[in-house]
C-alpha cells in the first residue's frame, strides 16, 4: 500500500503541496494583520503538524478514512457537527478529531465535543462508535482515545438538554453571531 513509497518522498510531496497552497494564499494571509514573525510561526507549526501526521500515518500503515469532514446534522438532537475523519473496520467505528492546540491534553471542552460527536454519529448511522481519537498534531505519537460508553453518551445528552434549557428564546438578537457568519452558512439547506 502506502508503505511501498519511501516516507521521505511522501513528506517532500506533502510539504511541496502545502507550500504551494501557502504561497497562493499569501495575500489573504497578510490581510489577517499578523506580523511576519507570527506568519512564519504558523507556517512552521503547520509544517510540523504535517510531518508528525505523515509519520504516524505511515508508521501505522493506516487505511484512508471512510469519511472525512463528515458534516452530520441531526434534526432529532437539533445539533450539527463536523467530524474530521471516520474509520470503519472490523465492525468497529473510530471517530477522529484533529487538534492543533499547543498542549496535548484532554480538556473538558474536548470531552464535551467527543460526547456530542458520538451522539451525532449514533443518531445518524444507528451505530454507537467505539472510540473518539483525539489526535494532537503538534505531538509525535498516537491519538489519545476517548472511549465511548453509556456514561459518555449520557453526558452528551445532559449537555444538550442543559443548552436547550438556556436557549429557549426565539428572539434572534439573544444569540449574536460570534463565528463570522459560519453558523448561517452551515445551517443553509439543512
- Counting DSSP H or I runs of 4 or more residues, the number of helices is 6
- Structural class by helix and strand composition: alpha+beta
The Rg value, from CA coordinates, equals 19 Å
Q: Total number of β-strand segments?
A: 5
CATH topology of the largest domain, by name, is Trna Endonuclease, Chain: A, domain 1
Rounded to the nearest angstrom, the distance between the terminal CA atoms is 38 Å
Could you characterize the architecture of this molecule?
Helix content is 46%, strand content 19%. It is of the alpha+beta class and 190 residues long. The chain folds into 2 domains: 2-59, no CATH class; 67-187, Trna Endonuclease, Chain: A, domain 1 (3-Layer(aba) Sandwich), CATH 3.40.1350. The protein has a 5-stranded mixed β-sheet, covered by helices on one side. A hairpin with a 2-residue loop joins strand 2 (79-89) and strand 3 (92-99). The longest helix has 24 residues, at 36-59. The protein is globular and about 50 Å long. It starts with 6 loop residues before the first helix and ends with a helix.
